[in-house]
Design a protein that fits this description.
α1 links the parallel β1 and β2 (32-38). By secondary structure, the chain is of the alpha/beta class. The protein contains 14 helices and 18 strands. It folds into 2 domains: 3-134 and 328-349, Rossmann fold, CATH 3.40.50.720; 141-322, Dihydrodipicolinate Reductase, domain 2. The strands form 3 sheets. Strands 17-16-15-14-7-13-12-9-18 form a 9-stranded mixed β-sheet. It has a 6-stranded parallel β-sheet with strand order 3-2-1-4-5-6, with helices on both faces. The chain has helices at residues 12-27, 42-53, 66-72, 84-96, 111-124, 138-149, 181-184, 193-204, 303-313, 316-322, 330-344, 352-371, 377-381, 390-395, and strands at 3-8, 32-38, 61-63, 77-80, 100-104, 128-131, 156-164, 173-174, 207-215, 221-224, 227-230, 236-243, 248-254, 262-269, 272-276, 289-294, 297-302, 375-376. The radius of gyration is 21 Å and the shape is globular.
Length: 398
């Protein structure tokens, strides 16, 4: 059976998905076909359809609305890359129409929206995947092996992921949907922060408590048609996250810290540390180092050396599952995993529940800051704490 795939939302991130699906098609031509492209800007859908035509002998049909598409197409799988505010609406409509879906991070715009997607999947016996690509890279897979399988760092103790820098608030920027709370749901805590939250759980399991301060020090003007509007997102946060396994994590980020910029990302265990040389969202990167304390001596291992050892440790089945066709690009792997899950009726690696649990970390940061007190992670996950999210839920009738 050739799966019929549609892409909903033909913007920036969807281009990476389109490239990944095209690469999959080159390797497994009969796995799926591009059946439809959907975007309210019809020219964007047309652009995607024209690109897709280069890898198959017909042009996918194009649509401006999900409703119109679903009324005319019998789809097996839909990849949803819309603005955050549309994730739950598009996903639920597709699930109710009998299609399996993959939703771009950060899954739903709130915890409640995310749960609504999961419930629609359960009701219709459909698959939900979340497009989380970062954990699937070689350096990130190697970090999991270092910490959880080889246990090079010993027992997890501390994790610092800190960035402070400055961007010019006086610079007038062009409006984007992300700057509005009701369209984006929040700022970088839940945008790029979705990757960080997923990696936290991937490496260390579930949190227990979250205590955070989230603020906007500067005003950030944006030009929206003929008027100036201001960014509603945070420009600074500091979060203290404790975990069930005893780990204590400090995660902070600011673009309102003039004069001196720095980034510090270190995972500490009882035997040593993993020193990352990337940003505070997407690592660990392949330029990281593992430093083991051996008495008064320190022994350093490069991530690239450990990557080779990790790959050598894999049997053929696990290697095929983690890196299908030997590809180590996270977007390729997430798209392949989704199609394979649909084809074989299995759970995808990052399913709706995984996406929800990562989402709840981000929302716990907002909830703690909104309430001015620590929050229990499970209370946020289970919807007992939703003061920050309440106006968003009400706006969307959730």
């Amino acid at each position: 059976m050739v799966l019929k795939l549609a892409i909903v939302g033909c913007g920036g991130m969807a281009e990476a998905h389109l490239r990944a699906y095209t690469a999959i098609k080159q390797r497994e031509p009969g796995k799926f076909e591009f059946a439809a492209m959907c975007d309210p800007v019809l020219a964007s859908a047309e652009k995607f359809a024209n690109i897709a035509t280069q890898s198959q002998n017909f042009k996918p049909r194009v649509y401006k609305s999900v409703e119109d598409m679903l009324s005319k197409e019998a789809l097996d799988a839909v990849d949803i890359c819309t603005p955050h505010s549309e994730h739950h609406k598009a996903a639920i409509a597709c699930l109710n129409a009998g299609a399996d879906v993959m939703v771009e991070k950060p899954f739903g715009i709130t915890v409640k929206a995310s749960k609504a997607i999961i419930e629609a999947a359960r009701k219709n016996n459909r698959i939900v995947a979340v497009a989380e690509n970062v954990r699937r890279g070689l350096s990130q897979r190697t970090a999991y092996w270092i910490i959880n399988e080889r246990k090079m760092l010993g027992e997890p103790r501390l994790f610092f992921a800190q960035h402070a820098g400055w961007e010019n608030p006086a610079e007038e920027r062009v409006w984007h949907w992300r700057i509005e709370k009701m369209l984006g749901g929040g700022g970088m805590v839940m945008d790029s922060g979705a990757h960080f939250a997923d990696m936290l759980r991937y490496l260390y399991g579930d949190p227990e408590t979250v205590y955070a301060r989230v603020t906007q020090f500067e005003k950030w003007p944006h030009k929206k048609r003929d008027k100036i509007v201001y960014d509603e997102r945070e420009d600074t946060w500091i979060a203290l996250i404790t975990f069930k396994n005893g780990l204590i994590c400090t995660w902070s980020w600011s673009i309102a810290a003039p004069g001196y910029s720095y980034t510090n990302v270190v995972h500490y265990g009882s035997k040593g540390c993993l020193l990352d040389h990337g940003d505070v969202f997407h690592g660990p990167f392949d330029n990281a180092e593992v430093i083991i304390q051996d008495g008064l001596k320190k022994v350093t291992y490069s991530m690239r050396t450990l990557e080779r050892e990790f790959l050598e440790s894999l049997d053929s089945e696990r290697r095929r599952r983690l890196f299908p066709h030997g590809i180590m690009n996270g977007v390729f792997v997430e798209c392949y995993d989704f199609l394979d899950a649909v084809e074989n009726r299995r759970k995808p690696e990052v399913d709706g529940e995984e996406g929800l649990k990562a989402k709840a970390i981000c929302e716990a940061i907002y909830e703690s800051a909104y309430l001015g007190q620590p929050v229990n992670y499970r209370d946020v996950l289970e919807g007992r704490v939703e003061a920050y999210q309440k106006p968003i839920n009400e706006y969307f009738g959730l």
